[in-house]
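User: Please go through the entry that follows and flag anything odd:
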Amino acid sequence: MNPDRLAPIKLVIFDVDGVLTDGRIIIDDQGVESKFFNVRDGHGIKLLQRAGLRAAFLTGRQSRVVDRRAEELGVRLIYQGAKNKIEIYEKILTEQKMADPEIAYAGDDLVDLPVMRRVGLALAPADAVVEVKAAAHYVCRSAGGHGAAREMVELILKGQKRWEAVTARYYQTENPDRTSA
């Protein structure tokens, strides 16, 4: 991975279905929708924000589940029902006063290609379609909804030399005088 692509990233935009989830959509008899999110992906997004970067969700579907997950994670930039993702991407650039090199985008399907071709860092889960993997600057070892978002966050934070600082609290010992038997 070219470190020059990682350094300027300030915002990571995640597609939802197929990136933050495994792509399955469960709708019960009452029309209630469910999605499966990975807790490590969520923690990764929290680490991203703790490091001073921002996260956004950009999805073609409309779902209360996505609003709920975004609220849990403190993600304030949520764009749902995006039939033309490049138009929404342009809106994000204008609203956030950012440029293409400052944006990373994580996508898994053909609808993501126009945005992926514009951003400074295009990311794809391991199970993305072939065309998306070909357009990505980095293809994860993990599949969508199974740790891909966490892997993406780690790539960026480690590349920006922010990982150790943002995770340091997990390595601190409570009692440095403690000895083991």
